[in-house]
Amino acid sequence: MTPLQLAGMNPLGSLVLAIVVPVLIIAFGTYVGVLVALQSFFGESSWQDVSNANED
What we know:
The chain is mainly alpha-helical.
């Protein structure tokens, strides 16, 4: 049985999927959005590069 089939039989499992999957999608989208913002505003690829540039 696949995890999705098991979750379909278990109401708690389907509730967990209904909460966890959107949270993971939002977290991943936020991460990608931060990376795009760093590259477009600062021309850097990480917060460490931005903070090091500000210290100089």
